TrEMBL record:
InterPro entries xref list: AMP-bd_C (IPR025110), AMP-bd_C_sf (IPR045851), AMP-binding_CS (IPR020845), AMP-dep_synth/lig_dom (IPR000873)
Family: Belongs to the ATP-dependent AMP-binding enzyme family.
SUPFAM superfamilies noted in UniProt: Acetyl-CoA synthetase-like
Lineage top rank: taxon: Bacteria
Organism of derivation: Prauserella halophila
Signal peptide start and end residues: none
AMP-dependent synthetase/ligase domain residues: 55-422
Stretches for region Disordered: 1-26
Protein name stated in the entry: (2,3-dihydroxybenzoyl)adenylate synthase
The keyword Secreted appears for this protein: no
Keywords assigned: Ligase
One protein family per Pfam: AMP-binding_C
Domain AMP-binding enzyme C-terminal: 473-549
Amino acid sequence: MNPGPAANPGSAVNPGPAASSGPDFTPWPAEEAARYRALGHWRGQTFGTWLSGLAAAYAGRTAVVGVSAATGEQVRWTYAELDERAHRLAAGFAARGIEAGERVLVQLPNVAEYVPVLFGLWRAGALPVFALPAHRHSELVHFASHAEAAAIVTVGEHERHDYAAEAHSVADEVAPVRRVFVVGSDEFAELAATEPRELPDPDPGAPAFLQLSGGSTGMSKLIPRTHDDYLYSVRESARICRLRPDSVYLVVLPAAHNYPMSSPGILGALHAGSTVVLSPRPDADTAFALVESEGVTMCGVVPPLAAAWVQAAARTTRDLSTLEVLLVGGAKCGRELAERIEPALGCRLQQVFGMAEGLVFYTRLDDPDELVLSTQGRPISLDDEIRVVNPDDPEASAADVVEPGQAGALLTRGPYTIRGYYRAAEHNATAFTADGFYRTGDLVRLHPSGHVEVVGRVKEQINRGGEKVAPEEVENHLMAHSGVLDAALVGVADAFLGERTCAYVVPVDGAEPAEAELRRFVRERGVAAYKVPDRVVLTAEFPTTGVGKTSKRELRAVLADQAKNG
Ligand code: OOB
């Protein structure tokens, strides 16, 4: 049954409905919050009022260029048009029963409507939950039920997948979901044409949306980001990346991911009065055509895509001369690749190392080449507290710092890094230190300049070319197969993606499930394609390490070692 909106989504003490575990939102301590406000980091502004300000300042300039889900044609909307569309959508969502504080699962590809829908939900006071287009049934059910989403916003058929049918089947399974809105449908056109009306502005200190974590133990966690904290990171990102009203930012990665959303991304570009161009696909042919036709000046990519573009640039006939900056991040950009970007694409490389939980590092555009090529940058804010601590102790406190220049586990606390995941009390107890530092799980080395170099990780996560895979989640799917006794997923080095996944599987006595069968089985359990193991290796038994029962963590380490050496 639908329990309705949480009583007070911004409150730390709200335990949420009985089904949930832990508070919705862990606020910053009052003193810290007061300091961030006094410093002007948090300005008490919501996304809705922020857009109104942008529309006033840049009314006739082009805000969004993209393919419309409704017509399949490219559209161009000015800031004034974007603002009006968002007002109408907000009124439309409200008229259809979406209440302030309710969560709405959003699964949209890079279509033009993505931007006004986002602001429409924000103005209605709803909290978007950002699924990626790659997510499938089991993931969507998890997000919708954990967030107790009241509705789903999606598209119809897209890239040979029926998103609307998928959303309806999720709605059938997850009781709180009352509505499915299909962008591009006639019904949605009616909603989008609703007469605008004043709606109460949400609390800027309360969560504005829920991002997804990459996940390490089990399924992705939900990340509550507030208007105040996120807008601070957006303004600073726009400044650091030197976006201007005549900049043109191209979105090639899935728009809902934190990186193209805010580093500096769609929101950073809007903050500067720039134009946001949404590319339906990330391939060089599509993207280069848009660079030429729209005069793109900036784009953010993951390392494998940067490598593909470097190759494609050698034989393209497109004019890429407007491109000034290519951001590369989401996974480690190796030195060799880093060195090839500027000569091949004729633009400045900017490395970015960030996380949906908050903290973002950028190399600066005027940093010496050596730092740009060999580090992942320095934090956005002087108020980002950075600690590099003993990597061998998963419970290391912020005081257990390593010697200067040594590699260690990165902990952080600051004005735009969360203090807790959404409804995840148990996980929060280990993911954060007692004094509120987030354990990023990344292994880094700090340079005297304040720049960091990512040298590895201590968390149980595989980074497949920027797409994050939690081993436990995939192992659980494999173990649901009747022929599988046990499974362990490890990352193996890959020249293109950085890492690929390899599943080691112990079959039940007498069974011999084929690799293709197991891969299909995982896919058909309803998971994103990037989580389907790249390889499956059957093994009679798992190696034991030392005494007693092997922990999955140790086992993965041993298997990863075997994969590397064998
Ligand atoms: C970005 O966000 P997420 O939440 O998908 O993943 C965060 C994790 C980091 O903890 C780190 O393990 C890895 O992705 N990562 C990098 C990296 N950028 C992210 N590892 C090495 N080098 C880099 N440059 O991936 C994200 C969010 C905002 C901006 C950029 C990336």
